[in-house]
Amino acid sequence: MARFSIRGLYDEVERRITPPVETIVHSDEFAATMKVVGRTRSAIGSRIDAVGAAVLHAVNLPAGSDIRKLRRQVGDLDYEIRRLRRNSLSGTIATAHPAGRTDVGVTDGPRGALDRVRQEIERNALRARNGIKMAAGLTAPRIGASPRDEVWRDGRARLFRYRNDEVRHRPPLLIVFSLVSRSYILDLTPGNSFIEHLLGAGFDVYLLDWGVPDERDSANGLEYYADAAIPAAIRETCRRSGTDEVNLLGYCFGGNLTLLHAAHHPDSPIRSHTVVACPVDYSEMPFKSVLTSSPDDLERALGDDGNVPADVVYGAFRSLKPVAELTGYVDLLERMWSDEYVAAYQAMNGWGTDHVPLPGGVARQMGTMLSGNNGFMTDRLYLGGDRVHLSDIRTPFLAVVGEKDHIVPIAAASPVMDLVGADDKTELRLKGGHIGLVVGRTAAKTTIPTIIEFLIDKSEAVR
To answer: How far apart are CA 370 and CA 203, in angstroms?
Structure first.
């Protein structure tokens, strides 16, 4: 009898409904609807928080007063799982074979069927235990665990230096992160961390994190980031590490910021320049949102603080894969028994929904210069009244792009190779997606070692 597969059933349903759903969510009408939904969600958010505990009790989900009871339930399930494992081991029998051999734990025939039943019983107990832990918030993955120190601050922007007692290469590496998401994706969990790999390779690593914008940042334009904050962070990095240059790396929209900085300041002390999943051809960007609609739509979408709300930013990204969230739940249901999978799911899902507001000033420039005029591609970039050109970037250059990146497709990222003026430039194409370039097995095996090799080649040994 064929084994029923929830995942197989879902895959068939997804195959049939995804094309029409994507057509809908990529329409102008859907973008307008999402803006209304975003404003509505913001308006009722506080009310939802106020009644949250009552709702949880009503549907038998845990509120604060239930945690002790749930911990006891988790303990009981842990005991049952250990008992099942002991019984499974003690029940392993020796089966006689011709020629006097005996094999322990034979898995074919009735014995194999019994083993599979025991395994499924154990996994069901693990699913129940892990489900309770997730619902109650009893477990949370360790994110951003690499030790670091804040060494500079300007408003919400902060420069962190990661601790490393075995620095073997110089100059230091300065990473500039995106404006609309949290930087801990680069240091997700122990053993699955881009930062951890860099430190292990002997680099002196700094991270420029933009924090969470508020009303004080609403007027910030690209000039603040490219002409003020990044130069200040470079100076502080050089001062603390005792060097005259930095290796610079920009991730996603952080790559746009480093490109604008390097183009406007060709004499900036940059030894090498790397961008990862960095868009330049905005006509190839797949999402429709307030960032690519009319100026009037953008102004109406701004929150009371003058910034694009985080839920509007999240909605724009979510519309790129409208059924991905459901797909994730199906996968989670099937693999809830795996502690490792659950921890990875919690970390990735937590980051994927944890966006931050986008400063209103930057949003306006994105809508007009970067998207409306497709400024990188048409060479119509202006900062502080000055026209800037990517062709002025002459430092050794590496672009990392993902063939499966649904957020910044290759068509949007790859043209940077023709735009920068460096003679020494390399493109690294990988089969990974947007996050898979820096997180996961593909990153650990291919992306990160290649980036490290490039950086070592552009560095010298510390004596």
So the answer is: 33
Interval 2-28: pLDDT, tens: 444 555 554 555 555 555 545 554 555
CA angle 409, 351, 367 (to 5 degrees): 45
Structure tokens at 345: 């799911």
CB half-sphere exposure, 41, CA atoms < 13 A: 13
Instruction: Tell me if 432 sits within 8 A of 445, measured CB to CB.
Output: no
Closest by CA to 168, choosing from 205, 204, 206, 207, is: 204
For 388-406, how does the pLDDT look when each residue is reduced to its tens digit (9 = 90+)? 999 999 999 999 999 888 7
Q: Is the dihedral of CA 165, 167, 172, 176 positive or negative?
A: negative
Coil, helix or strand at residue 131: helix
| Whether 230 contacts 152, CB under 8 Å | no
Measured CA to CA, the distance from residue 370 to residue 432 in angstroms comes to 25
Tokens for 444? 């650990």
Peptide bond just before 295 cis, omega within 30 deg: no
Amino acid in position 228:
A
Q: Name the residue with tokens 């100026």.
A: 295
